[in-house]
Amino acid sequence: MPVVFRWIFFGCLSRSLITMSALLAIFIIVESFDKARYLGHGLDAALMIEYMLLKIPFMLAEFMPIIVLIGASLYLIELSRNQELVAIRAAGMGISKILIPLAAVAGMAALTSFIIGEWVTPVTNQRLDSIEEIHIQHKQSNKQGIQWLKDGRSFFRLTPLADHQFAMLVLKTDPQGSWLERIDSPRASYSNGVWHLSKALISTPTDDQMMHMEQRETMEIISDIGPEAVELPNAHHMNFAELHRYIGELKHAGLGTGAYTYALQRKFSAPFACLLMVIMAAALCLHAGNRNNQASWGLVLSLSLGLAFYVFGNAGYLLAGSNRIPPAFAAWLPSLVYGGTAVFLLLRREGH
Could you tell me if residue 247 is inside a domain? Predict the structure, then answer.
């Protein structure tokens, strides 16, 4: 590993770790003051500490691009003020000698963000929401996800979809428990004691141990058993495979996939944004010489753009959830805007 690469890589990495520690410390202080009012009213000290620790993975996954942006900006400003960029340029090294180690740090951050978002936050977010709902909002939830209901000798398996719709599986059995008929429907709804099924596939066994299958566009099943209290699966509780499978179920039922498609695309767009942030930092803070005024403005712009990136991402989530813009586009829009702006500013700075 070349000396210059190690020098820039470890310098940027250390500033990013310091930035991460500072942001986490600020978050813990602010969140502690906010949640302290619930102590003795549903929260105790142990539960509050658990809440804070569980929130850290969410914060890291959410703010990793901003951490990289600020860390890289601080390091590049330090290089500028210490005249070290002048030495790099005088040695005939191009911008790539600076960007490659910065991109390596960003790649590590992106990988860490993806791992946390895929295997850690789906678990911690479930526990966080449970603490929030039961111990802070004092709601005793009896909601559930997939249900099995029984009506006589018929068994209903319901998977909640959007707009009070369900993916339904019905098994009808004889008194001995052997199945007589199976009905699969990608979309069903319940009203006034009747289940309304769309695209129902009916399977029945035949005497020669074969299977007879019949497709109906619509079908009704009279039943006193309706859906119990249910809640849709939370996109923040799902990993990539679960999101992909549930989106397929929604599409099969002809329903919108808004928030779930957004969450799926964010699993890739958020880590990718880490790579774009080092380009933005270089475009704003890469100054040859001791230009304190320019360096200070570069840091201010980096902090402002980092905050704007977070706000921009939340706005995209709201627009995708309300079907104002395509969810995949909403997930990638902040990265595309920031990436395009960063590349333009850097090329302009380099005289291209």
Answer: no
